[in-house]
Amino acid sequence: MNYDIVIVGAGVAGLTAAIYAGRSKYSVLVIEEYMIGGQCVAIDSIENFPSYKNISGVELTTKMYEQCVDLGVKFVVNSIESIDVEKHIIKLSNQELSYKKLIIATGLTYNKPNIENIDNYQGRGVSYCTVCDANLYKNKIVAVVSNS
Questions:
Q1: CB neighbours of residue 47 within 10 Å
Q2: Which of 38, 63, 130, 138 is least crowded, fewest Cβ atoms below 10 Å from its Cβ?
Q3: pLDDT higher for 126 or 65?
Q4: DSSP character at residue 33
């Protein structure tokens, strides 16, 4: 398959890029290894996204995904075996794709402290984004933990 634009990563950045590329009438493929929506789907309440007073990560990324589909954007959930940026070829486990332009929107991973069961407390007191979540802890006692 040949696409004008291939986007690697289906988090908020990848979905946003796909919306704009789709609106511009490009043939667009989004490749995601794990879950469409990325880390945003784990967020129960987003209060700092333009146009929404409060929305869950699942609801936000579902709306973005639906908008992409309406624009003709294609999605593949698969892992990438290799990318040849000189030949503009991406090899997946079951197919080979060519592209004109490539957008890498793979996001980030958190530097989680080595604390037992910390994942059970994400969104319930454990936060990884001060810009996003600082207001939730206003006038409360907090601890900042770093592995570095």
A1: 12
A2: 138
A3: 65
A4: S
pTM: 0.80
Which pLDDT belongs to residue 147?
66
Instruction: Give the ranges where the chain is alpha helix by DSSP (H).
Output: 12-23, 57-70, 130-133
Under 8 Å between Cβ of 22 and 28: yes
For the record, the structure tokens of 108 come out as 């980030």
Amino acid symbol at 117 = N
Measured on CA atoms in the order 34, 119, 51, 102, is the torsion positive or negative? Answer: negative
**In terms of DSSP bridges, do strands 74-77 and 28-32 run parallel, antiparallel, or are they unpaired?**
parallel
Cα radius of gyration rounded to whole Å, the chain: 18
Hey, what amino acid is at 70?
Answer: D
Q: How far apart are CA 120 and CA 140, in angstroms?
A: 21
